[in-house]
Amino acid sequence: MAAAGMVAAVAIARAGDAPAPSYDGIVPAATLKVWRDLGTGNGALSRYKPATPPGHYAIGTTPTPQQIAGWTIAVPPDGANLPPGSGTVAAGEKLFSSDCAMCHGGFGEGAHGYPALAGGVGSLAGTAPQKTVGSYWPYATTLWDYINRAMPFYAPHTLKPAQVYALTAFILNLNGIVTGKFVADAQSVPRVKMPNRDSFNWKDPRPVTHNIACMKDCAPAGSVRITSSAAKMGLTPRTTGPVDDMKGSGK
Amino acid sequence: MSKTDRRSLFRLGAAFGAIATAASTGARAATIAPPADDPWSNALGAGVDSRPYGRPSRFEKNVIRRYVPWLSPTKDADASFTPLQDHHGIITPNGLFFERYHSGRPSIDPKHYRLMISGRVKRPLLLTLDQLMRYPSVSRIHFIECPANGATEWPAAQLNSLQFTHGMIGCAEWTGVRLSTLLDEAGLLPDSRWVLASGSDGAHMDRSLPMVKCLDDCIIAWGQNGEAIRPEQGYPVRLVVPGWQGNVNVKWLRQLQVGSEPWITREETSEYSELLGDGKSLGFTWAMNAKSVITFPCPEKKLTGGPGFYQIHGLAWSGNGRVRHVDVSLDGGVNYHRATLDGPVLSRCLTRFTFNWRWDGKPALIQSRVTDETGYVQPTIRQKHKFWGRDPVYENNSIQTWQVLADGTVNNVQLS
Description:
The complex is a heterodimer of chains A (251) and B (416). Chain A is mainly α and 251 residues long. Chain A contains seven helices and four strands, in the order H-H-E-H-H-H-H-E-H-E-E. Chain A has a two-stranded antiparallel ribbon. In chain A, helix 3 (89-99) packs across helix 6 and helix 5 (140-150) packs across helix 6 (161-174). Chain A is extended, with a radius of gyration of 25 Å. The termini of chain A are far apart. Chain B has 416 residues and is an alpha+beta fold. In chain B, the strands form six sheets. A five-stranded mixed sheet of chain B has the order 4-3-12-7-8. In chain B, strands 5, 6, 9, 10 and 11 form a five-stranded antiparallel sheet that branches. A five-stranded antiparallel sheet of chain B has the order 18-17-21-22-23, with no helix packed on it. Helix content of chain B is 13%, strand content 29%. Chain B has three domains: 3-54, no CATH class; 75-282, Sulfite Oxidase, Chain A, domain 2, CATH 3.90.420; 291-413, Sandwich (Immunoglobulin-like). At the A-B interface, helix 1, helix 2, helix 5, strand 3 and strand 4 of A face strand 3, strand 4, helix 4, strand 7 and strand 12 of B. Strand 3 (200-201) of chain A pairs parallel with strand 14 of chain B, so a sheet runs across the interface.
């Protein structure tokens, strides 16, 4: 583009930025640094030169603040964008029984194959890990955000903020993370420290598994043994004829 | 001859054709062999007005997406699988491209479609579909693979099918505007480090993406293999993030929110993070590491002609660049032979490979192993288990072994 050369590169992301104050005590400084390095490609972004200046094509409109607010529902770990309102564990329990328990179980244990929301603490390193809100999720804001964004599954975007706060409080309480007196609001939810918060490595270490492109005598002759075969498992739907729903096969 | 006359003659011809076909089908069925004509050769075929939007031959009715009923309690948060056993070449037909929904498939009226770019930008943007399509566009061929492709095969060989072990992948030509073009248009700020892409499905499915990738090669696409993106793939607009796990290629895209930190959404914690054997987890594992699989023979496509010549063929790909080479083993990985790469070898794209094989009729254990341009070599399942544990969910890119039996049957097996 002709105009590109005349426009100074937008300076982006100074390496080593101090953590935003809103994340203090919520996201460890080391985690925040990893996130920033990922976002900027370890600072490579500072060398990015836009091909065109802002507004170059002048196509489209500027959304109004109301339009932006209407679609901007995401809540990051510092709780920015959480709306006013609050909800108690007791209010959440009532709502959960009527709107949620049919899929998630009365105590968040899961039902009919739908996800468990509680339990599983201490199971993650074992042979049957149970990933629940309590055992797995690193930030409580994700719970608020996902209920608000997607639940109830069959009728999304029907809950009011106070109801989302109440359900958040109840599910945290089910997991023993907060007491029955906890009141969820924009201040308290980001401050809940989730038990598994520090077990996430946000920096992708892969590839961690390496093979070598050996061509000849890569294993001792006769050492190759079949350890499992899918042929007799009985788990495979038919791949001919109409779509196989496997009803009547017991599976 | 007048126009009307000609039209009625055509109609007459079509009618004769129908009668002839009906009359001859039964009588001739037993003697269908050269040099006798088959019924369709003795009749006038269908006209150009009979099928305004084409479809496969009725004899291809088995070639469809299929799902595994026991994987999910509900079909609106489930996956269907591409029939790779009938996948010719590197382009996945739009009707066969695998599906993964998190809250069902919305049906979007393009007249109501809006794309919003907001957050940490100088100049927020709201675009209609027509406005979006006025921006300079590009067209690129890339695969999209669900990181759970092969999830059932982590603990053991479980599904005796190529479709179900490898079919959560598809490859298409995606046409749209580069995401960098729109981000330049909006104007970034010094702390614009991340982008949250979210969809207009019921769950507003969303993923955080690092700015450096967004400015590199991502596409806001409306075209898929020469036509409008299918509803299953995000009609009217989806995000294409070349080489990265399927779910970040957000479908039914409606908002790109620019921010300074990731949002840590449900789809980047509860789902799509990788729990390891030691109880720790990997938070962000976006790129799909190199993988390959033999698509013929496979459990669905046995060796039906007895001993003799067969061409083994398959697909290889890498989320980190181009395929460098593919090696094929006939003895369970003791010895490997270099395969031929056939057709275009494009970055972050399916690559077809072939290997000419004269089968002696004895049982064989056949495998393919890809090396990509970074030098990464596709690992064995045993190598994968050492880091990931025995039963994780994501990123099973291990070498697939097909057991060929003396009668030509092919089974999915795992080796010591």
